[in-house]
Recover the amino acids of this structure.
């Protein structure tokens, strides 16, 4: 079983919809949570990061972490065609043995159609 | 501020050859991490370098190696290439501070390696 599970989709929604992307994890040592967006033929781009349970909002994006359930989510409001990309959740443990290592989910392919 | 750069962007090699990929981190960043991305396995951590020292290593065979120079630029080498090494190789840079709460990784565009 993988340490981080993410539904690969694909997910197709109409413009303006609310999108919900989710990841579950099994490693209790994970303390730092990130969402990256990756367009085709590009490197991942950091969208949001958080290290505590609860919600964090940035424009149309809201990241949610529930450490008790080992579950994280990313919500996209008023989705746009330009949001069409692969969304990757990533996590790291705050310990010396985890230097520089992010553990990623498989990525969810999102398409927002006009 | 310039982002992370990787060269070359595309590479075609044949089985048995070796390859060297290069990564220049964001100015001021001292940590460079390397990842392999494939459709089947997703993004997998290869290794991390900080101040010219490898601090962490993923579960890849010894054919995969790297190094970091005093200016924080890093290279990754793969020897005796196999078909399964075809992938997008990504590097990411960060400040490298031990307090990882603020040690966010920024990725380069990647090097697409095809092994024939």
């Amino acid at each position: 079983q993988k340490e981080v599970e993410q539904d690969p989709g694909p997910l197709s929604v109409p413009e303006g919809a609310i999108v919900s992307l989710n990841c579950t994890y099994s490693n209790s040592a994970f303390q730092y949570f990130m969402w990256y967006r990756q367009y085709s033929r590009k490197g991942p781009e950091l969208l949001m990061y958080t290290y505590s349970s609860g919600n964090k909002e940035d424009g149309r994006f809201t990241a949610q972490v529930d450490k008790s359930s080992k579950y994280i989510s990313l919500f996209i409001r008023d989705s746009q065609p330009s949001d069409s990309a692969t969304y990757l959740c990533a996590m790291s443990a705050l310990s010396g043995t985890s230097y520089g290592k992010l553990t990623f989910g498989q990525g969810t392919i999102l398409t927002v159609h006009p | 501020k310039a982002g992370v750069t990787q060269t070359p962007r595309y590479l075609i090699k044949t089985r048995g050859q070796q390859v060297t990929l290069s990564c220049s981190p964001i100015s001021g960043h001292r940590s460079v991490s390397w990842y392999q991305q494939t459709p089947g396995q997703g993004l997998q951590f290869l290794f991390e370098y900080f101040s010219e020292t490898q601090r962490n290593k993923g579960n890849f065979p010894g054919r995969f190696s790297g190094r970091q120079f005093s200016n924080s630029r890093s290279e990754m080498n793969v020897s005796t290439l196999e078909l399964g090494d075809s992938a997008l190789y990504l590097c990411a840079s960060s400040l490298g501070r031990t307090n990882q709460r603020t040690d966010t990784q920024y990725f380069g565009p990647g090097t697409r390696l095809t092994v024939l």
